[in-house]
Amino acid sequence: MLNQVYRCGFQPFNQRLLPWVQCTAVSRSHRVQPSAIRHVRSWSNIPFITVPLSRTHGKSFAHRSELKHAKRIVVKLGSAVVTRGDECGLALGRLASIVEQVSVLQNQGREMMLVTSGAVAFGKQRLRHEILLSQSVRQALHSGQNQLKEMAIPVLEARACAAAGQSGLMALYEAMFTQYSICAAQILVTNLDFHDEQKRRNLNGTLHELLRMNIVPIINTNDAVVPPAEPNSDLQGVNVISVKDNDSLAARLAVEMKTDLLIVLSDVEGLFDSPPGSDDAKLIDIFYPGDQQSVTFGTKSRVGMGGMEAKVKAALWALQGGTSVVIANGTHPKVSGHVITDIVEGKKVGTFFSEVKPAGPTVEQQGEMARSGGRTLATLEPEQRAEIIHHLADLLTDQRDEILLANKKDMEEAEGRLAAPLLKRLSLSTSKLNSLAIGLRQIASSSQDSVGRVLRRTRIAKNLELEQVTVPIGVLLVIFESRPDCLPQVAALAIASGNGLLLKGGKEAAHSNRILHLLTQEALSIHGVKEAVQLVNTREEVEDLCRLDKMIDLIIPRGSSQLVRDIQKAAKGIPVMGHSEGICHMYVDSEASVDKATRLVRDSKCEYPAACNALETLLIHRDLLRTPLFDQIIDMLRVEQVKIHAGPKFASYLTFSPSEVKSLRTEYGDLELCIEVVDNVQEAIDHIHKYGSSHTDVIITENEKTAEFFLHHVDSACVFWNASTRFSDGYRFGLGAEVGISTSRIHARGPVGLEGLLTTKWLLRGQDHVVSDFSEHGSLKYLHENLPIPQRNTN
């Protein structure tokens, strides 16, 4: 019997139950006890996450990131979530996905409760079917075709539908939860059950007993007997809320049961400041008590008793009672399969209700400020933008002591937590600040002819002239790790190009980033554009920032290859400029100089091995093996303590080889290097194309013909001859600084400086010109004459 699933109907515990209860149980040998969960399970596409769940109920969570600590959770499924679009029958696929997510959270050790609609829709489908089947063929024939059509859509009373649908709805939930070894119990309640103190205590005791037994209670209003909603003293205080619909029921249960989180799933993304679908409607990320005046509510959903206004009232009531609330979309096919787990993981889904207002602006507000400030910045004269950058460069040297003191705090806090290469990136010094200041002044000088530069002029027809001019991209989001020196560089490039800027730095550089951002805003203030550059200090996850496609025009990640890959994956509708890997190659040709080869390999690998432009794979011409040149390179690498990984062909030439490389497509970011053997320059090129990342690749040779062949055939962003890979850098290219290195094939490639942050627009100046004038019988003809481009004074 222990290996068989069984169902049982049972009497109320201790004969105390007044609401009706039905339970489905499964063998305890199949149950997953929370204490046994120590790893990710594979039976579901939603992984288990082990988190500390102990929490004292009393105050709601202040931030989304804290929701992962929620232990007791109520999930309310609105009618629009549970029912099909035709309002007759259930959305089975959607329900199955919701049950899976609830089961995953239950098996993590959480206490899950469902408040569900759907009985009326399920009963409507069932009763319609029964009515049609109950008609005899004779009655159907004699009633006539018109009457038969009317019979196909009978008008049914909602209470009868609820009565007919409750058992079927519960049977469906039972079948679904059984697939995940979860036991479920149904409880039907009415408003009277909460107003009668004895019944309320009985209900509370029943729910606690079910949760103690690891059973998921499925609660619904008893729509078969519930009286019509009546006006009463609703929402007058924490202890008073009438159960008029499942929104108020979920809120009442959440407070009664001292739950940590109430998730309300509906057919809209969350709470909007005006009815969804209206022109200016904006999704509200976080809603605070007292914000109701800023919201215009629309009509209620296509099914169900309540609208968004009812959900907000219920949510605020629950929040006042100490339960956190999120209202989200449970019907969207792209998110419904993980919406509940995403909310619990703290992701930016739907509208989060919080009693704690942040000290500063939200990231959405920062995006709007960056957009507005960037547009003003773009209208400044080039000399004014250059003046801002010069002032920032001066501040970096004048406020050196304050900057280094803040950086010292970051270094002390990061000691022992960050690897040595990351600590080196985090560190600031006087020489670094001086180099930064020099780079910023270069940007200021080169920015004189950036925004508004005419690229092309064409006379379309007489008195109809077209210009193509450079303009800012819009709002940039730059995400960077352990690189505080990145902040003033990127800020200067954004200022020079007239772009608004959102900066998201790593928490390990929080002190350094804060003072550098303050100095940037101080420089911007001299021309009244302080808000054009914003530092995101909220607990915003990178993945959530990547979803702000209405506010951000370009994302530029600066950090590890994993960070770049994560951002490329998370970005929805926003282009990402960057490279996920920096697998740089250097090919030592048979005609290479011994001294040049050793010097170039050392600089490329050992000068700064954590950089994305550091050498990762050394390709050696086969004829150089066992020659003085090869021996000298190996001796140098040994002295520099570089760990060597042998490629398959290189290993085959050696009796005792170094460890064979696991993958020829590896970015080490440390004093490690892969060495492989090739037969000629073409094989080197083929290897680079197969295993490289199109970042930076180098040939070392004295043969100009071989070098030019390499330069023109290697398809990478940067291709060098007899030069270190480390030259692949915006500052060294004379760009002043860079926002990153792009391996993309459109817009910008290689080190991206000022030019890469500009796009173009077309300006057409005419005098009452219409297209019909240029038709076959029109009075005008196209000229399409190229006009000289005016030279701007950049002195």
TrEMBL record:
Signal peptide: none annotated. Residues 363-625 form the Aldehyde dehydrogenase domain. The gene is ALDH18A1. GO terms for cellular component: mitochondrial matrix. One of its GO terms (biological process) is citrulline biosynthetic process. It comes from Otolemur garnettii. It is found in: Mitochondrion matrix. This is Delta-1-pyrroline-5-carboxylate synthase. GO terms for molecular function: ATP binding; glutamate 5-kinase activity; glutamate-5-semialdehyde dehydrogenase activity; identical protein binding.
